[in-house]
Amino acid sequence: xxxxxxxxxxxxxxxxxxxxxxxxxxxxxxxxxYYNSASQYAKNSKKIVEYSIFPKxxxxxxESNQSLTRPNVALQLFSRYLSKNGLDNLVKNKLLFKGSAExxxxxxxxxxxxxxxxxxxxxxxxxxxxDKINQIRKIIET
Length: 142
Known about the structure:
alpha+beta, 4-stranded antiparallel sheet, 142 residues, Alpha-Beta Plaits
């Protein structure tokens, strides 16, 4: 099982500053229930296992049976539900949320899971990933 932490903010920056997402708590709860119900039958079943609603963002912990290369895309059904059920006024350019996601790495990973994480790290294009790659190189070269 693979776990991910998602941080979702409204894509509409103007509305992000004017909107308190806690006002949409009931809509978000319904979207989580809908997502979990519909996603359990997918080829790669997924589930939202935890979520917290803050005024400016939503934090979600999700699980997937398989590794996800783009974890936020896996929440597309969740966003689509909200776009059609109460948050339609917050959509901009057909997009409700923008956000980030990271894999929650559990201890005692299998060799396969470690290899997948290393591959994912090499595809990231940020300084933090490059620093980690350099640390791995030093370990391997010693």
